[in-house]
């Protein structure tokens, strides 16, 4: 269904005209390409054309100059230092000169316009004015040799970073181009149906959380979000873009003739595996942008023991949710695991003598048991606040409200928690203390917040070190400086070297880090007195609260994650 990109017939005809291929040899080459799934370049290199000669031919065909970049003296203007070593190694594209607002880049594949656009954007972000990119061609081998010399000159090619870059280059899957004939393109054709199914199946196989279909000027980009990062995997020809998106719309029962407004739908995917997908479309300049969230119905994290709580935090959290009434809030940005943690709490509390009801937008997982779940419908007047008021007439013990967004929902949730109900919900705040400020800014009186709030759980998801390639090392001086004395000198830390299991990244899977703030009489009194944020934070820490940063550092020292992830996902306390 998919194969690596090869030149079209024009380049093949060019080779015939240059006397590099006879018509009989061209037929033999095309036969090998078809049967081996190789590119024309690979087949030619295996026969009688050298790497230098092939690159020269490609340069001539594309109208660009060929240079022997490996023999090139290191320029005094070290313009390449603005692009990360790992990027130029992966894409074989090296900036070598900047003059009169023209950036010269040596590249192995002049058709890789996306790489050139990335490089242009990187330099413009550094306040360079780029009027034109001048492309010159060289072989991948020569570019690799130039990269080693040039980056060594800037002091960037150093031990572990270089090793990790080589591992990344070796293991990360290449981007492939979907091989679809233009006359086979429609939403119901077998190639499009198979392509749509394969995209979903591969995403599930790689444990991706989301599939992104992103329209570009020349193609449709397919990216998977894996362990929090986006990885491009496939490019779809532009002429197949609408057909593929229409295929997914049909699967989600969306209107295929409506491309002017956003649409949301749900796919029950049952081709070889059972997957539920939440699909969203948004119109963009080059076509519809599609994001599909994969909802794993067998989610292994639907248990409190699997969430990543430390022993102390787990005891504090369970103590809070066992309260007969009060307000429990999970806070953090989108994608921080709030819904998963809330579902874990509800599953834990689902007993024979308890009634649990939820209002969600939308219901992501069907929890089963005796938990009654409902979708809100704002267009019909069934909002979070309206659902809450209705629930109070259904004699529940525990209520989950998907999100507190406004004063009405906040006020109703607080009142419900003060009248004998345990209420769970979420807020988009950065930390536990910020939640108190958000509620009061919404208009909830301090004394009501103090009386109702039982626990705030701030959280993030960070990547776990791949167990297959995990290694220990002494923390570096640079890491110590970045950590600002938050970690002892000569500490043993851990990282992943990169392997096939983790696609060379050194990471596999994610785990939560948490900040559990339990409300006791000390914090309640401070709240009623309208104490400052710093006073509340100091009191919470004195009463045993670990910050997100502290929890992440402990996980790094335990070998669960890396110092890199600590710095990436937490702020200095």
From TrEMBL:
The segment(s) forming the Type II secretion system protein GspE N-terminal domain are 66-156
| Lineage: superkingdom | Bacteria
InterPro entries linked to this entry = P-loop_NTPase (IPR027417), T2SS/T4SS_dom (IPR001482), T2SS_E_N_sf (IPR037257), T2SS_GspE_N (IPR007831)
Q: Which GO terms describe its molecular function?
A: ATP binding; ATP hydrolysis activity
User: Keywords on this record?
Assistant: ATP-binding, Nucleotide-binding
Gene3D superfamilies in the record, alphabetically?
Answer: 3.30.450.90, P-loop containing nucleotide triphosphate hydrolases, Type II secretion system, protein E, N-terminal domain
GO cellular component entries: plasma membrane
Q: Which CDD domains match?
A: PulE-GspE-like (cd01129)
Keyword Nucleotide-binding in annotation: yes
Recorded family membership = Belongs to the GSP E family.
Protein name stated in the entry: AAA+ ATPase domain-containing protein
Q: Which organism is it from?
A: Candidatus Fischerbacteria bacterium RBG_13_37_8
What does the record give as the organism's lineage? Bacteria, Candidatus Fischeribacteriota
